[in-house]
Amino acid sequence: MSLPRPLRLATLSLAAVTLVVAAAGIALEVVKRDIGPPPLSAAEAESVTVLDRNNRLLRAFTTKDGRWRLPLEVSEVDPRYLAILMAYEDKRFYAHGGVDLYAVLRAAYLFARHGEILSGGSTLTMQVARLLDGKHERTGGGKLRQIARALQLEDSLSKDEILRLYLRLAPFGGNIEGVRAASLAYFGKEPKHLSAGEAALLVALPQSPERRRPDRNNDAARKARDRVLDRAVEEGVLPKAEAERAKTERVPKQRLEVLKLAPHLSEAEVAAQPAKRIHRLTLDRDMQAAIEKLTSEQIKLLGPKLSAAVLVVDHATGEVLAHVGSAGYLDGDRQGAIDMTDAIRSPGSTLKPFIYGLAFEQGIAHPETLIEDRPTRFGSYTPENFDEAFYGTVSIREALGNSLNVPAVKVLAAVGPGRLMGRFRRAGITPRLPANAQPSLAIALGGLGMTLKDLATLYSDLARGGEPVALKWHRDEPTAKPATARRRLLTPVSAWYVTDILRDAPPPPNTKGGAIAYKTGTSYGYRDAWAVGYDGRHVVAVWVGRPDAASTPGLMGRLSAAPILFDTFARIAERPAPFRAAPAGVMKATGASLPPPLKRFREPSDDAVAKGPFLEPPVLISFPPDRSELDIEDREAEPLIIKAEGGALPLTWLIDGNPMTSDPLRREVEWQPDGRGFAKLTVIDAKGRVDRVSVRLR
User: Fold this and answer.
1) Catalytic site residues?
2) Which of 32, 381, 400, 425 registers the highest number of CB atoms within 10 A of its CB?
3) pLDDT tens for residues 204-234?
4) Do the strands 628-630 and 668-671 form a parallel or antiparallel pair, or are they unpaired?
5) Mean pLDDT across the stretch 590-606?
6) Nearby residues of 241 by Cβ (< 8 Å), 6 or more positions away
């Protein structure tokens, strides 16, 4: 029995559709095998990025083919942008399997009715397929390959993974690819928070990236944005009033330069690890930007060809928060490409605090000890003060606070240049001396080479009460090096004495002092100006000079570098952090109430003053003072230095009545205690005169 004609036609139509669908399915399978797996490796080429401590962008580099393509996750994009994107491009993205049949049929119907393409049938997945293959074929075969690739992507990736590929690969004109690069280039901000107008513009541009580039065809970009806003209203994504307000937003007319903060450090990091795509540093982006701007502005006031470098360190952790290698990376007149934080230069007077710190530690001086600032010859070496004046009898506090040269050299002669160099080395710093040179008294005034990083490290230790900490630039590094790598710089008491003096140092003109401890330095010939300071949390180190080491008359630490130091502190915190409390053992006394050996500094040359038996002073143990307490834990394996004054050589030393091994022609002896407790020290000179002190070791 034959079927009715309508039913027969319906059956034939269904069979035809079935055959077409089957043929299309077979064709798609053939095409899928022919085109191979999705070329996901094409999306792996991303811009190398350098991030700050809060994952904010510091610096980005183009890919090898010169494109800006920045890494981006779906969660890092404004939800409003995603909603507008779906409404305009693919509102059934999360429902279809790569091909939206409804959209395809609608596009075909509109084409048949109007004779032109009024609606595209491409899904976001199909657009990703096209971007991965790098082809935009408009032929039937090309569209079939695109559909096959989209189906492959849906089989192997999640929806969010496909969306992430679109966010990273979508073209936005020129060499800009991806939503993040576009947001930074056109709006100067990350895509996490976009206005409605900004989101709509980013949705519109990939449709025709070159013809709609805002920097080349601003009117076309504006019209395309407005069409997207109208569609968002139709789909219920935006209220009409908000869309109308968004249409009044300015469309950018030029591309912005991608961030280039911390250029010296960023380029060094990328060069050291070229295979790494994301570099995470300890820097703070806001602080870095502020200090770079400050340095550039200040150096222009100082004169041509001068540059500057600044380091900001959190001395609690050693993390570097700002690293400014020059006053302008691209400033050729100032040789801005040179990172002056690594340059070896003479540190001037910035090492004086550590000389006095050793003297405090050895018990031969106190901040209120008096010392003579008078013309003095040390062999062939005759130091002078910076202002070529002498101030007579001053306290150690005044000598260090006012950076007097002669007292510093006298104290270094007493503690020994070799001991100072040894202390630097055990703190992890290697000062540079001229070839075949030995440490001399000249290092008190900068007669060696150090970098700004070296000084930042030393002053970080000083700010921590002498406890060592390694500078840290990378977030994935341990907070500090192993304890065996670096040792204590100074004892807590001696470090506190130094800090107490430096916080009262005269501030630069038009600046209020007392809130930070700081020291300045000027190298020989006005080549380098330094200022290093700290509060209870931060250390700031500043260098100013010419990278070619040429002399700049009038360049001085207090007038050139110190203002940058104080302005930097003003930008990194509302107010300086409080200093540490005084540790146990600090002797707060006036000069009159000091023990006799500490009232006046005994200079090495004083031994030759005596002219006869009646003028010869009696032997006296100058360190340690009688009934003092000595902390031997902080000294690790370093012996204590016991000192005597006066008396006639040779000297004999006893510990609890037992003879010590010593050089009888020297007035000091090394003592390695074998444990805690009380001990009695005795010294006997050649004429039988005796002095004794009792000490407690803890």
Assistant:
1) 89, 349
2) 400
3) 999 999 999 999 999 999 999 999 999 999 9
4) unpaired
5) 80
6) none
